[in-house]
Design goal:
Belongs to the 'phage' integrase family. The chain is mainly α. The chain has 2 domains: about 90 residues, Tyrosine recombinase, N-terminal domain (DNA polymerase, domain 1); about 200 residues, hpI Integrase, Chain A, CATH 1.10.443.10. It is built from 15 helices and 5 strands.
Length: about 325
């Protein structure tokens, strides 16, 4: 089901009450709790759609009936995936609990949609090489890093200079999924290309400093604790954007990281030229990293740590990709 998404904030009113800017308060609470900008945009979008779907009534005047009706419409008429439906529910639960401060009994009984178990798409080693052969420049380096380190797309995009350790051949992933840090391997083949990329970032940073800019966005309250740290090169992105832009969090003009959409377009074009018909995204390279390590005989616990999975059960999905149950199964046709 499709609902219109106006660009302006909806002022939801109740009879006899002033017009509160509900979505502004949602944003404030999300930022107070250090949610990412991506999550902020998603949650605000779902809350806006919920309000519009119910005639712009204030959420205080609605309850379980309206929430269940909205989620049902998404599933039945919108035919959205279970993960999308659960995402909408999470946004509405945040609205009622964190913004409106309402703890209602029906919130505890909301049943999340059961997610389907899909085996991830994985490229063969030859397909990875064919894909990389069709890329060049920064897209080639980013795709190579994703495959060679197992990082998630945004972990790679947000990589800071200080977190690349050439002496130990490792990369520290900061504030990954679940707010966890971890270390992963830095492929030796990427040392020189990555050093050149960091040198280019250094030149760009010096140019920004001379122009009165060059202050990186620091996580949490580090900017207040270390006022000059944002100007240090170690805090800059390894893959900076070509242009400066206004940071939506504080309104400061600074250089953001490389646009991930550019990498997605480059990979899509490269797959077409390489003749790869599998559905391929940046995350496919992460799946391929894990699968190929297991194929090489590495312990599943080691792969779990490199990927940053909280539970080894998440990592075990790659044993299904390998078609291994226990010590492996040989088809009777191949005997």
């Amino acid at each position: 089901m499709s609902y219109p998404l106006p660009s302006t904030v909806i002022a939801v009113t109740r009879p006899g009450a002033p017009a509160p800017r509900l979505l502004d308060e949602v944003r404030r609470r999300l930022r107070l709790k250090h949610y990412s900008l991506r999550t902020e945009a998603i949650y605000v979008g779902w809350i806006r759609r919920f309000i519009l779907a119910n005639g712009k009534r204030h959420p205080r005047d609605m309850g379980a009936l309206e929430v269940e009706g909205f989620l049902s419409a998404l599933a039945v008429r919108g035919k959205v995936a279970a993960s999308t439906q659960n995402q909408a529910l999470s946004a509405l639960l945040f609205l009622y609990r964190e913004v409106l401060g309402i703890e209602l009994p029906w919130m505890e009984t909301m049943v999340r949609a059961k997610r389907s178990q899909h085996v991830p798409a994985v490229l063969a080693r030859e397909e990875v090489q064919a894909l990389l052969a069709q890329l060049e420049g920064r897209p080639w380096l980013l795709a190579s890093l994703l495959y060679g380190t197992g990082m998630r797309l945004m972990e790679c995009m947000r990589l800071r200079v200080k977190d690349v350790d050439f002496a130990r051949n490792e990369i520290t992933v900061r504030d990954g999924k679940g707010g966890k840090d971890r270390r992963t391997v830095l492929p030796k083949r990427l040392v020189e290309p990555l050093q050149r990329e960091i040198e280019r970032a250094h030149v760009l940073h010096e140019t920004d400093l001379h122009a009165g800019f060059g202050v990186a966005h620091l996580p949490h309250a580090l900017a207040r604790k270390y006022p000059r740290a944002g100007r240090e090169f170690g805090w800059q992105f390894v893959f900076p954007s070509a242009q400066r832009s206004i940071d939506p969090l504080d309104g400061v003009e600074r250089r953001h990281h490389f646009d991930e959409a550019l990498l997605s377009r480059a990979m899509k074009s490269a797959c077409r030229r390489a003749g790869i018909v599998k559905p391929v995204s940046a995350h496919t390279l992460r799946h391929s990293f894990a699968t190929h390590l297991l194929e090489a005989g590495y312990d599943i616990r080691t792969v779990q740590e490199l990927l940053g999975h909280k539970d080894v059960a998440t990592t075990q999905i790659y044993t299904h990709v390998l078609n291994r149950g226990g010590n492996g199964v040989l088809s009777p046709l191949d005997r």
